[in-house]
What we know:
alpha+beta, four-stranded antiparallel sheet, 9 helices, 42% helix
Amino acid sequence: MSLVLDPAAQDLLFREARTANTFTDEPVTEEQVQAIYDLVKYGPTAFNQSPLRITLVRSPEARERLVKHMAEGNQAKTATAPLVAILSADNEFHEELPALFPHFPQAKDVFFGERSAREGAAALNAALQAAYFIIGVRAAGLAAGPMTGLDFAGVQKEFLDDDHAPLMVVNIGKPGDDAWFPRSPRLAYDDVITTV
């Protein structure tokens, strides 16, 4: 059985897509970001909790503040990418549940009244949404450079608050010269899939 998605789209989203390490100086527009969000917001999360929050770093001053919190190997590409996004998990996502999960608005208190329950749920579901976001960037014809080599506490203090936990930083733009490292191997089907 073959996939329904056109092979060119499969290549764009997965087979040919790579983590970009250099970018051209072509800007990423607000319209592109809006189109990405308008697509990826439909990706599923538990209870439709949608805890991902995205902080776009556009100003030179904000970029400088972010770069100092990136690992050394990530600083230059973060400094030069056309757009940088800080992806974080909102640990107070439950406040939106009455609107986002209207058929059971009590879920806000029944399942997520405790902060520890919210933090675990937010981390997992925001990570799912971060993956959707990366696919959405690719669907827009752009390259994403997701990174977790950063000072998480520093990024949180600099850009977020105690209710938002940073997950990763993503550089976004058109790939530049020598953008790709060689593709690393992938596990074979039989190494991953088990039937019981």
